[in-house]
Every structure is written in C-alpha cells, then in structure tokens.
Design goal:
Elements: E1 12-14, H1 23-26, E2 39-43, E3 45-46, E4 49-50, H2 63-75, E5 88-95, E6 101-103, H3 107-113, E7 120-127, E8 133-137, H4 143-152, E9 159-162, E10 169-172, E11 178-180, E12 184-191, E13 197-200
Antiparallel strand pairs: 1-2, 2-5, 3-4, 5-12, 6-13, 7-10, 7-12, 8-9, 8-11
C-alpha cells in the first residue's frame, strides 16, 4: 500500500564536545538530553543511526526499513545515497564553541578515497551578535600558505568570515574548508555521508578525553 500520511520522525540527541544546551529548550519534551547535546538528528538513514517514525500507523518503523518497502514514495525522482539509502540527513546544531576546521570530499575524490561525498547547507535560526562562520579560503591563499598557518595555529586568518543572522542561508559545497563559530543554532541539511576530514581542531580533546 502506498504511503498515505506525512511522516514525523523522532529526533535523536547527539553529544558533541562543542555542543551547547539550547536544543533541549527548542525540542522540549521530545528527547532525553545528555550534556553537551550539540546536535539533534531529525532525519537519518545510516547503518549506525536510523530515524524512527514518531506517530501514526507506521510508528516505530525506521527509515532504513521504510526504504525497503516504500522507496518510490519516499524518493520520488531523487537518487539514492552512495551507500544505497535515503539521500539526505537533516539535523539541528547548537554551538557553544568553535567547531573544527574541516572539509568534505566531492564525488570524484570520495570515489578515489573510498569514502562518501558531502555537500551541505545551513539555515541560521538563532545567532549571538558576535557569532562567526568561516567558509572558504581568502583570495590568493595557496597550499603553502595554508600549510605554514596550520603549523602555528593561525589558519582562521586565511579564511573568509561571515557574520550570520537569523534567516540567513549558506551553501557549503564539497571541497570547501569551513567551520561554525560559537553561539549559533542552525538547521543543517546534507548529503547522506559521514566523511569529514579535520584540518585543525585547536588542540581539543574529545568527550573521551583523547585528542581528536
């Protein structure tokens, strides 16, 4: 039987070393919140984390399971992800600290590396006055200059910076160095991929106390 209802999925809280505490107020009553819950995954079809329908006749069914029986209804004319699942991940982010400086591979590079490509975009919901986004290198910055800056921790000076405001939208093409500053709440929509290469993480340790 084809799908006859809109689907709402249960959000899933995810701890991040840079995470804040604002999402628990935005999604109050829907989650059990650990400390530093920097992300709430709203839609995901990954082997390690699959969204479950929250209500209705399909309550409890996971997105990966639905893809087995309802692929045409869920995808329309969209293509599957590289891994064969639903093509998008949607999540809320709340940043209490600057994220790592990172980059995701494009399709051709992902194939060579045996990884997954990742384009993403951000919709800004809330932003503190001094919040900053870093997106792409400044004009004229080459690989040698970036390598030198990486050695002494001055990489942010080589990046284009933006002051985001609620309602702003940013596209982050694969292959673009980027970082999200502190004090932001945003929705991230991305290709279904878990491939991230960190270029710099400010000598930070993870939630397990080990270097990231």
């Amino acid at each position: 039987m084809p799908l006859q209802q809109a689907l709402r999925f249960e959000p899933q809280a995810v701890q991040r070393v840079w995470g804040g505490d604002r999402l628990q107020h935005r999604l109050r009553g829907e989650l059990t919140w650990p400390s530093q819950s920097g992300e709430a995954w709203l839609l995901c079809d990954r082997p390690e984390q699959a969204s479950a329908v929250a209500e209705g006749s399909l309550s409890g069914r996971t997105l990966d399971g639905l893809m087995l029986s309802e692929e045409a209804a869920l995808l329309g004319e969209s293509a599957l992800s590289v891994g064969g699942g639903f093509p998008l991940i949607v999540k809320w982010l709340d940043t209490a600290e600057l994220l790592s400086l990172q980059v995701h591979p494009c399709e051709s590079l992902a194939k060579r590396l045996g990884s997954e490509p990742k384009d993403e975009c951000w919709y800004i919901s809330d932003a503190e006055p001094e919040s900053v986004l870093y997106l792409g290198l400044r004009d004229g910055v080459d690989a040698a200059a970036f390598a030198d800056a990486s050695a002494n921790g001055a990489v942010l000076e080589l990046l284009q910076s933006f002051t985001p405001r609620p309602g702003d939208f940013f596209h982050v093409p694969a292959g673009t160095l980027h970082s999200i500053g502190a004090g932001l709440t945003l929705v991230e929509i991305q290709q279904n991929s878990d491939t991230t290469y960190r270029a710099h993480d400010w000598d930070r340790v993870g939630l397990n106390g080990q270097p990231r």
